[in-house]
């Protein structure tokens, strides 16, 4: 039975200021390859939908390794190494549409208000440079299944206000998670933590690890047998971690010794 390591992507493995050189640092890449060579399963656990991630990881420069699994859309959809769906949970179309109309006025701008459906982001914004976004002129053009909504706000305070509105209006239907100055909204009962547990059950993992840098990773850390975050992370994150590290490779090396 394998060990299983689930990692957040943005701010944990990938840092936007270095994406013109590599998506994941050579040090972290080598640690992942070593872990996989030893029989471990290494996957990503992200708020992005699948295509929102793979459109970037498959481009040049891309990754020098392959993920063994993908926990996407904050745990609402899980895919195997070949990107075949393992498990998902969805919300009704009418809820997705109401979410968009409720939250979008609070977004940083139209480019930052996104419907999460199928394996992609959908947006009403025009003339955007993100190739993984599907632009639409009517909500009727959005194809299901519907996983939720995501947006970036001007501040953490606005993001928290938006999350509170969503959680009050749709209690028991969806759950909004704050991720710094943005929110991810997914079906109730889904989180990065439940995604980890589903993946561990599917693969029969004997021991699990999780690493993340921000508040929407707390459920991942709480669900993992061994939880990691960075010394530079918010002190609130430290309370949910078993081990503090400076980079992902350090966490992977520690987990391999267990």
Would you count the extended β strands for me?
Answer: 14
Structural class: alpha/beta
3D shape: globular
- The helix/strand order is EHEHEEEHEEEEHEEHEHEHEH
Poorly predicted residue ranges: none
Main sheet properties:
8 strands, mixed
Q: Helix count?
A: 8
Q: What's the multimeric state?
A: single chain
Average the pLDDT over all residues and give the rounded result.
93
**First and last CA, distance:** 14 Å
Q: Provide the gyration radius in Å.
A: 17 Å
Q: Which strand order do you get reading across the main beta sheet?
A: 5-4-3-2-1-12-13-14
Helical coverage, percent range: 25-40%
In what range is the share of β-strand residues? 25-35%
What does this structure look like?
By secondary structure, the protein is of the alpha/beta class. Helix content is about 30%, strand content about 25%. It has eight helices and 14 strands. It has helices spanning about 25-35, 50-55, 95-105, 155-170, 190-205, 220-225, 235-240, 250-255; strands at about 5, 40-45, 70, 75-80, 85-90, 115, 120-125, 135, 145-150, 175-180, 180-185, 205-210, 225-230, 245. The radius of gyration is 17 Å and the shape is globular. The relative contact order is 0.17. The mean pLDDT is about 95.
Give a short overview.
This protein is an alpha/beta fold. It contains 8 helices and 14 strands.
Write the layout of secondary structure elements.
Elements: E1 3-7, H1 26-37, E2 41-45, H2 50-57, E3 69-72, E4 77-80, E5 85-88, H3 93-103, E6 113-117, E7 120-123, E8 133-135, E9 146-152, H4 156-169, E10 174-178, E11 182-187, H5 192-203, E12 207-211, H6 218-223, E13 226-230, H7 235-238, E14 243-245, H8 248-256
Helix pairs in contact: 1-8
